[in-house]
Specification:
The chain is an all-alpha fold and about 325 residues long. The chain contains 14 helices and 4 strands. Bound molecules: zinc ion (2 copies). Its cofactor is Fe(2+).
Length: about 325
């Protein structure tokens, strides 16, 4: 039996958070085959919510493996569309992709609602070209909040517009996948990021529409947006500088862990055309492993990367010594 909104708000006579996402599960009955975790729902996107619990009078969120796996995949793909698609493929052209892979990446890029691929790449190319100047759309020198999300709330600095006009983005619009994703962006994100995450859990595992919308669509979106924004904020502030200590972008393992390998930002700003966006293969970097897999099945090709010698040469001259020993920086 499905519960209405008023049922979701009350449980055992006390007011609970509307979606029960911050409710600890001690004592909550678990459906067969589930396993309990404390903060239910958070980090899962709620796609695996079990039928409403009578005990709590609301949407009890369980950890049944199949829907949890589906939720994890959705959240993971939210970021992958940006990291493997908008970023490494279209912004930096660090590899090439065949049409099926480009279409797939363009679709999952819609999950994260970070503007069309064209707009995303335009801003990102300007960011790289004019890093931490007034011409950088999310100039980290203006503080954590500005580089994290504040830049999206205010008018662009005139230098951003002036500098953007100097760059060539014709390659982006010449790709029909980018062109049509831009042209139909709003209907696409409405369907892919909001409607589907709301109705699929409703039909497939009896989730309430209300719970699915706020957790699987909205909360998942808020989490993934903040993860991506940390690349522009945290990874421009905290971490080592093994490849160039004169720039602010840093190697940040926490950002890399959540942002699928995008936190090795000192390396990335020094070698932006390297499809790995990091040097060392053992580092946390699921986006690189995804591209490698696509290469294996023939969907990705022309992977670009720096040679070990070139990396070492650069790092020993300009790095902070955290990976390679400091060398002669006078040459
Ligand atoms: Zn950056
Ligand atoms: Zn980049």
């Amino acid at each position: 039996m499905k519960k209405g909104f008023s049922d979701l708000r009350t449980g055992g006579g006390m007011i609970l958070p509307p979606l029960h996402i911050f409710h600890w599960g001690a004592g909550a009955p678990s459906p067969p085959g589930s396993y309990a975790l404390g903060l239910k729902g958070v980090g899962t996107g709620g796609l695996g919510a079990s039928p409403p619990s009578e005990k709590y009078g609301g949407a009890e969120v369980s950890f049944r493996p199949p829907p949890r796996f589906a939720t994890f995949v959705l959240g993971w793909f939210s970021n992958l569309g940006i990291t493997a698609g908008a970023h490494r493929l279209w912004s930096h052209k660090s590899y090439s992709a065949k049409l099926p892979l480009r279409i797939f990446l363009a679709i999952i890029a819609c999950l994260s609602c970070q503007n069309s691929i064209y707009i995303w790449c335009r801003d990102h190319r300007v960011h790289h070209k004019f890093t931490e100047t007034d011409g950088d759309p999310h100039n980290a020198k203006r503080g954590f909040f500005f580089s994290h999300m504040g830049w999206l709330w205010v008018k662009k600095h005139p230098d951003v517009i002036k500098n953007g006009a100097k760059l060539d983005f014709s390659d982006l619009m010449n790709d029909p996948v980018v062109f049509y994703q831009h042209k139909f962006y709003y209907p696409l994100i409405l369907m892919i990021s909001f409607v589907l995450p709301t109705v699929v859990p409703y039909f497939l595992w009896n989730e309430s529409l209300w719970n699915a919308y706020f957790v699987a669509a909205v909360m998942r979106l808020v989490l993934t947006l903040n993860i991506t924004w940390c690349v522009n904020s945290a990874a421009h502030m905290w971490g080592y500088h093994p490849y160039d200590e004169s720039i602010e972008p840093a190697e940040n393992i926490a950002v890399s862990f959540f942002a699928l390998g995008e936190g090795w930002h000192n390396y990335h700003h020094v070698f932006p055309f390297d499809y790995r966006a990091a040097e060392l293969p053992w580092k946390v970097n699921p986006t690189t492993q995804f591209i490698d897999l696509m290469h294996l099945i023939g969907q990705a090709y022309g992977l670009k990367y720096m040679s070990k010698e070139a990396i070492r040469s650069r790092a020993t001259k300009y790095g902070d010594g955290s990976i390679y020993p400091r060398g002669d920086k006078t040459n």
